[in-house]
Amino acid sequence: MSVSAVERTAMRRALALAATPGVPVGPNPRVGCVLLDDEGRTVAEGHHRGAGTAHAEADALQRAGAAARGTTAVVTLEPCNHTGRTGPCAQALIQAGVRRVVFAQSDPNPVASGGGATLRAAGLEVLGGIDAEDAGELNRTWTFAIEQGRPFVTWKFAATLDGRSAAADGSSRWITSAAARRDTHRLRALCDTMLVGTGTVETDDPRLTVRDEHDVDLPIQPLRAVMGLRDLDPGRRILDAAADTVRLRTRDPREALRLLRERDRHHVFLEGGPALAAAFLRAGLVDEIVAYLAPTLLGAGASAVGDFGVATIGDAFRPEVVDVHVLTADPEHNVRFTLRPVTSASGRPAPPSTHREER
């Protein structure tokens, strides 16, 4: 059994549907579906619009009505096999009389997986793994959370060329440019949780919301999480009504992530200070780094990250650079680096480099 050129084209369209802007980030993956007739013509399309709404397959089937019988369903994720807020998509496809199902990524969720086997048992043709890598990238943080049992952690920081996040007098507002800050809000909107420590709340009093270019809060906001043991001043802005806020009464990064996973969170945006960043690095719980560097030197002041146990150059943490982007619309030309930790074949952080530079 092989995939046709028409089905591959339909899969590209399904992936585009899954990535439709405006779908709220939540506990569910982003999924798209295209129904094709025997001539390869599109009968209907659908995509998932967030928790509690119809899944992509159900959306497409509803739009197709009786015309769904005999079609090929091209889906970016293996049809689910369980009943949650909505019914199982595998059964919906069977009942609608769909003849063939082509899907990209296998469902990693043990609660929902097995849809492909259910479809085959009902006599449908099933082909999986088509453009699976692209589908996996679309849902990389959701997949990570399912497979690892904890949220994916993106650590974001802003610093000067000499690695300072604040001046010697403690002032830290506007280390980077307005363009860099707008870009940060774009990345915030891709996460379902913003995480800081109590020290950052007391020192900086952040709102920690996602805002547009006019500094207006967007209608859909991620959860704001504050970890640490100290009590907070009730007047702090992070406790306002702009978004939900949860207190995590722990200093242990693993415990904080466990508590957030219990709330169905799968992508944490870590925006705390140097101490919190160091704690997550020390625990091996940073999965991605986004660093904004300003063409500025301070010479003194707080570092972007605290001590996380590196005593010699051989033990240096050396993440892989996956993207470097100069914010060209920015007159100050701030630079955004995206990095990911290097992992071994086991999936664990690779051992420290033993390389020594010749002098």
Notes on the structure:
By secondary structure, this protein is α/β, with parallel strands linked by helices. It is built from ten helices and 13 strands. An eight-stranded mixed beta sheet has the order 9-8-7-10-6-11-13-12, sandwiched between helices. It has a five-stranded mixed beta sheet with strand order 2-1-3-4-5, sandwiched between helices. The model is unreliable at 344-359 (pLDDT under 50).
Top keywords for this entry?
single chain; about 350 residues; alpha/beta; eight-stranded mixed beta sheet; five-stranded mixed beta sheet; 10 helices; about 25% helix; elongated
Number of strands: 13
Report on the biggest sheet: 8 strands, mixed
Helical fraction equals 25-40%
- Total number of helical segments? 10
Mean pLDDT: 90
- What's the Cα radius of gyration? 23 Å
How far do the termini sit from each other? 59 Å
Oligomer: single chain
Residue runs with pLDDT of under 50 for 5 or more positions = 344-359
Task: Return the string of H and E elements.
Answer: HEEHEHEHEHHEHEHEEHEHEEE
Overall SS class: alpha/beta
Walk across the major sheet and give the strand order: 9-8-7-10-6-11-13-12
Outline type: elongated
Our estimate of the beta-strand percent is 15-25%
What's the layout of helices and strands?
Blueprint: H1 5-18, E1 32-36, E2 42-47, H2 56-64, E3 72-77, H3 89-95, E4 100-105, H4 115-121, E5 125-127, H5 132-138, H6 140-148, E6 152-160, H7 178-188, E7 193-197, H8 198-204, E8 223-227, E9 245-248, H9 253-262, E10 267-270, H10 274-282, E11 288-294, E12 320-326, E13 335-340
Parallel strand pairs: 3-4, 4-5, 6-10, 6-11, 7-8, 7-10, 8-9
Antiparallel strand pairs: 1-2, 1-3, 11-13, 12-13
Helix pairs in contact: 3-4
